[in-house]
Amino acid sequence: MATKLAALILLAAFIAGPAACEGASICFNGWLRLPSYNPRLCRSRPDIQRRQRIPSPSGSGLSYGYYNSRCPSAEKLVTAAVRKAVAANPGIGAGLIRLFFHDCFVRGCDASVLLTATDSNNMDTEREGPPNKDSLRGFEVIDEAKAAIEAACPGTVSCADVVAFAARDASYFLSNRRINIPTQGGRYDGRESFANETDQLPGPFSNVTELQASFAAKGLTSDEMVVLSGAHTIGRARCMFSSSRLSEMDPAFAAKLRAQCNGDDNTNVNQDDVTPDVLDRQYYQNVIDRKVLFTSDAVLNSTETIAQVTENANRAGAWERKFERAMENMGKIGIKTRGDQQGAEIRKVCSRVNN
Ligand code: HEM
Fold first, then answer.
1. How many domains does one find in the chain?
2. Which of 100, 219, 233, 345 is placed for a possible disulfide with 283 were both Cys, Cβ 3.0 to 4.6 Å?
3. Is 165 part of a structural domain of the chain?
4. What 8-state DSSP symbol labels residue 103?
5. Considering the domain boundaries, does residue 40 fall inside one?
6. Distance between CA atoms of residues 332 and 7, nearest Å
7. CB-based contacts of 260: which residues, under 8 Å, 6+ apart?
8. Is residue 53 a part of any domain in this protein?
9. Measured from the CA of 92, which atom of ligand 1 is nearest?
10. Domain Plant heme peroxidase family profile: where (predicted)?
C-alpha cells in the first residue's frame, strides 16, 4: 500500500512539474523541464551528488560462449527473434537497445526492467517508472525468444542474458552489420523491481555535469556517456521532450518538428532526421548541426565533450568500435551470477519471478 502511494505521488510530481517536488527525495530531476538544476526543488540522489566515478564494472562471473555447452541454441534463438522483429519494424530494434540500457542502469543487468510480478508483490515495478511507462518497447521480442529457449533447454538461460543478446543483435542488424558487440553470458535474474529506482536514469533535460554524474555512478566514464548517447541515431521520442527548446535548434529542423508535433506532446518523432533507422555516427553530426531533440544531446556540444563529438562525427569506424566496447561494459553493471543464491534465479517467464 505504502509503495503504491509513493508511486502515485511520484507520478503526480512528474506530471505537475518541479514545484510538486519540494521536499521529495526522488524527483526525476532531468526528466522535468527545470530551468536549471535547483537543489531546493529537487534533491538529487546522494550517489549522483557525489559525482565520483565508482570503479568500472568488472563483469566477474561472465564469460563468452557461456551457453555453448549449457544450451547451444540459445543465442541463435535470440538472433532469430530479433532478426524477424527488426525486419518488420526497425523501431523495435531501437527499443531493444534502450531496454538493455534501462535494465543495466537500475539494479544492474538483471532483467528487473521486465518484471510485473515480484518477490515482495510490489506492483509499481520499473516498467511503471516515468522514464519507462508508455515508452519502452520490444518486450514481446524478449518473451518470444525466451519461450523458444525454454522449450529447448528449460531453466537454463536468464532473461538478463536474453536482453543483452537482443541488444547486441539489434545493434548488428540496425548498423547494417557494422557493429558486433562482444557479449558475455552468465547473468542471473533479480527478484525485485521498483518504479522509484528509475530515477537513476539520466533525463532529457539533464546538463553535462548531471549526465557525467549519472554514468559515473554506474562506473562508466564521460567518454562512454558520449559514445552511448550515439544510440540516439535511431528510434523515436515524444514531442514533450523537445518542444520547449525549438528556438535553440537549427531553424529548418525546428520548423519540421513543430509541424510534425502539431502541439501534441505525445506524438513521436524520429530522433535522427537524416538516417532514422540506421545505427551510425550521424548523431554526432546532428549534435554539431543543432539537429538533436533533447537538452542532454545538445549539451554534448560543450567544451568538455565537443572533442569526442567531433572525432566521432569525422573518423569513420571509430565510434562503432567504441560503441561495441561501451555496450559490453554497460552489460557488466551490477550483475548477479551463479554464486548469488540470495535474490537471484533463472526466471521461467521474464515478466514474473519464479514461485
Ligand atoms: C545520456 C542520457 C540519455 C538520456 C537523457 C536519454 C533519454 C531518452 C529519451 C527521453 C528518449 C525518448 C523516450 C520517449 O519519448 O518515450 C530516449 C529514446 C531512446 N534512447 Fe535514450 N537517453 C540516454 C541515453 C541512452 C543510451 C545510453 C542508450 C542506449 C545505449 C539510449 C537509447 C535510446 C534509444 C534507442 C531510444 C529510442 C527508443 C525507441 O524508439 O523505442 N539512450 N532516450
1. 2
2. 233
3. yes
4. H
5. no
6. 29
7. 239, 267, 269
8. no
9. 41
10. 61-354
